[in-house]
Write a structure and sequence with these properties.
With 489 residues, the chain is mainly α. It starts with 40 loop residues before the first helix and ends with a helix.
């Protein structure tokens, strides 16, 4: 954990000025540069304004009003990019709300611009030492991204599961609070959303999104919506008391003995805890090692159960449509294949039977992968009947998002084992199931490259940056393109 008692918790003063014209960093006067004579008065004013914005942002951060502090600190950096105090404090704020990527970026840039006597070195060292916390934050962000993807597809049950897991790992991830509150509001669970929003506001008291959500739903809750009668009555009473407190907020200061009581209790507890410090630490390490080797079977089962429940919603109507289709084309699957003279219909009915079986029970990953692959192999152009075409689209829209990553993993394993022909087939399927996956196109290009099909490889490598312009594989893809062009020459 980063020690927030060091660095950035101080008012900023005008620091060493650097001449913007000649780069002289030994300026002793605030008016003119001794080396080139450049007028430094405007630069001095800019630095002063930058420090003023930093001080304002610091005061906001001290009362946990992070949403208001962030734009103020960014304004400070616009005026003086060398204000390391402002950049380090901005990194601390991002770290506090669970945005570890932006936090590390701020500290790295700060260290690059001010290599000497910079508190960013201390923060980076602390984060790098505590690899377990860094990994847990990274895991929480991955689960949030997965939940965001599920929410965009209206798979709210799966999204809620992933968001609860993310908050269980990192309880300060403010973006997870915002998304989970939105889902609760969408589902009409206003009381749950209200309580979650209040928890998030304890982390960032000025978060505009959470404040807006709470303002939007408070009226509906007071009217008796979004929860049980007891819950609604409890929240309505709290809102009434909060309104009265805001109206009559003056309280006379009175002497209190609580600080002295707390001090005595703290000394007593400190003496007791000092005697039992080693044993709890050993137990904690053993427990963490044990928990790291456990699989979260309950969460996995809940996720699959939610998926099955969602898939079963569409099965009944599709069964009726299949029955109509079989009646129109000959009465059973075998006669259909003969009557329409197309193997695609036979594959379609086979995939339908597997889909119906899979959605009626708990399925394995291999069953899901094989079903997705069978659906991909069906030529949609040969499915002329509207019933069948609609059902095929429906099955693909349900199965592809669940199976695309697993199909990609199988294709990648085939590539790593030297089975390039098979890898091309599976990775092509994965790229059509998830057209926005840069890694799928990269390994598909690598497979074509190993097979000597350089034109196809170049086309797939170009897709990497087309689907994800800022892909982490951008440089690797460019290097592979050069290799293919050299091999063709």
């Amino acid at each position: 954990m980063v020690d927030r008692s060091r660095g950035c918790i101080r008012l900023s003063q005008v620091k060493i000025m650097i001449c913007p014209y000649c780069g002289n960093d030994e300026v002793s006067s605030r008016r003119k540069c001794e080396r080139c004579g450049f007028d430094l008065e405007p630069v001095s004013r800019l630095i002063g304004r930058s420090n003023a914005f930093y001080n304002r942002g610091l005061r906001m951060a001290q009362v946990r009003n992070f949403s208001a502090a962030i734009p103020v600190l960014e304004k400070s950096l616009e005026l003086n990019k060398y204000n390391s105090d402002a950049r380090n404090l901005l990194g601390l704020i991002f770290y506090e709300i669970g945005d570890i990527v932006n936090a590390l970026s701020c500290w790295l840039v700060s260290r690059h611009l001010m290599p000497e006597d910079n508190e960013a070195d201390y923060f980076l060292e602390k984060v790098q030492r505590d690899t377990q916390e860094l990994d847990s934050m990274n895991s929480a962000i991955k689960k949030y991204n997965l939940a965001l993807s599920e929410a965009r597809q209206h798979n709210f049950d799966l999204a809620i599961i992933q968001l609860k897991k993310a908050l269980g790992i990192n309880g300060k991830l403010i973006k997870a609070y915002q998304l989970l509150a939105l889902i609760y509001i969408e589902n009409g669970e206003l009381v749950k959303a209200y309580r979650l929003i209040n928890t998030g506001l304890k982390i960032d008291v000025g978060n505009t999104a959470l404040l807006k959500y709470r303002a939007d739903i408070t009226g509906s809750i007071v009217k008796g919506q979004g929860g049980t009668e007891a819950e609604v009555a409890e929240i309505a009473q709290k809102e009434k008391e909060a309104s009265l407190e805001a109206k009559f907020s003056y309280k006379e200061d009175r002497p209190s003995i609580l600080p002295f009581v707390n001090l005595i209790l703290g000394v007593i507890l400190g003496i007791i805890c000092a005697q039992w410090l080693i044993i709890p630490t050993v137990k904690k390490n053993v427990k963490q090692e044990y928990e790291s080797n456990q699989t979260d079977y309950s969460a996995e089962l809940a996720s699959k159960s939610a998926t099955i429940s969602q898939l079963q919603k569409t099965v009944t109507n599709q069964e009726r449509e299949i029955a109509k289709l079989e009646g129109m084309l000959g009465g059973d699957s075998s006669s259909v294949a003969v009557n329409v003279n197309s193997e695609s219909y036979a594959n379609f009915f086979e995939a339908w039977n597997i889909y119906r079986d899979v959605t009626s029970r708990s399925y394995t990953d291999d069953e899901l992968i094989n079903l997705a692959y069978k659906l991909w192999k069906i030529d949609a152009k040969e499915i002329a009947q509207e019933y069948a075409s609609n059902i095929l689209k429906s099955m693909r829209s349900e199965i592809y998002p669940l199976a695309s990553e697993k199909v990609y993993n199988k294709g990648k394993n085939l590539f790593e084992n030297g089975l390039y022909e098979d890898a091309v087939s599976w990775l092509t399927a994965a790229s059509e199931m998830n057209p926005s996956s840069d890694k799928t196109f990269y390994y598909l290009g690598r497979s074509y490259q190993e097979l000597g099909k350089y034109e196809e490889a170049i086309d797939r490598f170009k897709k990497v940056t087309e689907v994800v312009p800022n892909s982490t594989m951008k440089e690797q893809a460019a290097q592979r393109i050069n290799e293919c062009n050299a091999a063709k020459a």
